[in-house]
From TrEMBL:
Source organism: Micromonospora sonchi
Annotated GO MF terms: 2-oxopent-4-enoate hydratase activity
UniProt keyword list: Lyase
Cross-referenced InterPro entries: Fumarylacetoacetase-like_C, Fumarylacetoacetase_C_sf, Hydratase-Decarb/MhpD_sf
GO cellular component annotations of the record: cytoplasm
Cited Gene3D superfamilies: Fumarylacetoacetase-like, C-terminal domain (3.90.850.10)
Protein's recorded name: 4-oxalocrotonate decarboxylase
Pfam families, per database record: FAA_hydrolase
Superkingdom classification of source: Bacteria
Domain Fumarylacetoacetase-like C-terminal, residue spans: 91-251
Length: 256
């Protein structure tokens, strides 16, 4: 049997991102299952590496009920982050470079020594050097931000850009810190790090386990986004977005 055209699908999704132009969902028609969707994601990463980008980390998706409900997919997923996706804290993004970007509040981990795949993270403070408030910009390449599980995996879990605030040592009570997402000084979303799998540390265990299944290993010095604590909000031109995480401080970006 001839399988789905992994390279062709990666090309279609990569071009949609490059041109900021939405495409129809494709997994059902192409017969793309979850394993093949991760193969598309790997091919999309290779496309970025071929043009000189560097792999700098990994992100989790749909680790909170609020996110699962917003997009109608209820499985934890993971994607790849490259240096070209990073926006400096307080920096700006041009919304015209995206299709229908949304911002969401996250916590980021700076990875240190990680266990072998299949091993649980024993001591979190050995595995994680520092923690930071973060903003993820997601931008599904599918029309109307509507997709199935394999569609969103193939689309590198809607990853588009990310901002990392100041790093702090792992604080006490990481499992339940207040999270705010503000747009133009107004609170748009309120949540807690507890929304992230009950404890964002669990997202790291899940990331090691899920990515390990596909031979992806995280490395010292990488960034890890644990997944949004609340639903995402549309990013409009001119907006100033700020994420506040209790004990960790803020991360912000401006949209032009
Ligand atoms: C999928 C990506 C989800 C998160 O933090 O839950 C994600 C999407 O919502 O388009 O990044
Ligand atoms: Mg996210």
């Amino acid at each position: 049997m001839i399988g789905p055209d992994i390279a062709g699908i990666a090309q279609t999704l990569g071009a949609a991102a490059d041109n900021a132009s939405a495409i129809p969902q494709l997994a059902a028609e192409a017969g793309l299952g979850v394993d093949a969707a991760y193969a598309v994601q790997a091919a999309l990463l290779q496309r970025r590496l071929d043009r000189g980008e560097r792999l700098v980390g990994l992100k989790m998706g749909l680790t909170s009920k609020a996110k699962m409900a917003q997009v109608g997919v209820d499985e934890v997923i993971w994607g790849r982050l490259t240096d070209a996706m990073r926006v400096p804290d307080g920096g700006s993004v041009d919304v015209a470079e995206f299709i229908h970007p949304r911002a969401e509040p996250e916590v980021a981990f700076l990875l240190d020594r990680l266990p072998e795949p299949g091993e649980p993270v024993g001591d979190f403070t050995d595995a994680v050097r520092a923690v930071a408030p973060a903003i993820e910009l997601i931008d599904s390449r599918y029309a109307n931000f509507t997709f199935s599980l394999p569609d969103v995996i193939a689309d590198n879990t809607s990853a588009a850009a990310f901002v990392i605030g100041p790093w702090s040592p792992v604080p006490d009570g990481l499992e339940n810190l207040g999270v705010l997402l503000e747009v133009d000084g107004r609170v748009a979303q309120v949540g807690s790090t507890a929304a992230i799998l009950g404890d964002p540390r669990r997202a790291l265990d899940e990331g090691i386990r899920l990515a390990g299944r596909y031979g992806a290993r995280m490395r010292e010095g990488w960034v890890f986004l644990a997944g949004a604590a609340t639903a995402a909000v549309p990013l409009r031109p001119g907006a100033h977005v700020r994420v506040v995480v209790e004990k960790l401080g803020t991360a912000s970006l401006r949209a032009s």
